[in-house]
Amino acid sequence: MARIRKPKPKTKRVPPKKARPRSKLSLQLRAFIRYKTALLLALLFFLSIVVATSFTRGAVAEEGFAERVAATALILLVAFFLAGAFISQFEPRLFDSPPRIFFLGLIAIFLTLLASTVADYFLPLVLVAVLLAIVYNQRFALGMMIFYMVPIGLGATGDYKILAALFAGSVTAIFLSRDVRHRSKLIEVGTLAGFAQFVMLFALTIMELGPRNLYSREVLLPFLWVFVNGLAAGVAITALLPYLERAFNIITNIGLLELSDLNRPLLKHLALEAPGSYNHSLIVGSLAEAAARQIGANDLLARVSAYYHDIGKLNKPQYFVENEGLSPSKHQNLSPAMSSLIITAHTKDGLELGKEYKLPRKILRIIQEHHGSTLVEYFYHQAREKNQDNLQVEESAFRYPGPLPKSKESAIVMLADAVESASRTMKDPSPAHLEQLVHDLILKRLMGGQLNECNLTFRELQQIEISFIKVLAGIYHGRIKYPEQEEK
Ligand SMILES: [Fe+2]
Ligand SMILES: [Fe+2]
Fold it and tell me: Ligand 1 centroid vs 252 CA: distance in angstroms?
């Protein structure tokens, strides 16, 4: 494909595509329905837990039963209020998802009933803690475990030492659940949590009974059980994780790592049908991963999303310059508008193909957003040059449909994509030229409004720029001529 004549540099500000405006009434109604569902669910769980915990503390006919129920309800009310405040501050999006609220409430009821019916050391607190830490994050898991301890404590009929040990194990598991990328790590987390439970119970038992009264079967057996509890949690979460990922349409680091396997059917298909796009995607992956790591974003998500970002090109691989090879351009006999239509369709086609292959939502979003609403400049300028009737060439017809990147990872993939595509057309990829190219491209996306909806800071943009230059310098190292080589 012939190179485009460089357009006059202009930094035209493109307004971000806005969602269809809703009326104030419709917004209020939606908010009401949203919160009404969450509140109804909370009320349902509150009443269930009050009932579940009250009956473990005595029969209806017993004296003081009503007072006990009232006291339990009051404690739970405070706990529910605090849990609601915690969720609204740290995971407000949960209120948009009644199934997830339902799931969290169900865990509370399940744990409460279990605490009131079976031996405490069978309570799967470590399992729940690791699950929440992986699916959400460590802070959320810690907050929820504190909240769960209230109904569990109220419902428990057994030994409070064991509950304290299990809580210590859960906290240990949460702290160890950072950046879980391999299933074997989950077994390790479970084992160490089990060990923490063992140590805690041992210390509490010595405090209560003294060291001389430890050597009986009744005292020693719970030590073994609390250790097994942690270990079993590690094994169970390893087995359950793929099903949970599918059920909640979430993606964990383990799932991401599996998707990064280049032998996955979709990536193999890309390598065979669109080898140019495949190689481009791998380099975009390296650029995005390094930049995301630099700013503390999810580097694995950035890399894996980059691998899949151009899968939409599989529909018409030969229409993309990187897959043309030595064959003549397929756009030769097409109008610029038609060419632009084919090119811009690859984000939508990618989304559909990704859905077909059941890619997680986070990756699908990045596939859809990786060009934002940028202009397909080559065909736009070609259209203007060919326009001899002096009819207005509609710029919007040559723009990607958006939406704009919403997350840091998405914005990084957009920038890495632009940088990689531009750098491969450079004749002289010297460090100075690479620096200039990266700086100009990032500035262009920024000034064009493409980064308006992601939450990158200027400092982070600068860090991304430095990281891109470093990776590109590594890639083009062999192609950079040293002064003495040039002299020869
Ligand atoms: Fe693309
Ligand atoms: Fe791309």
Answer: 25
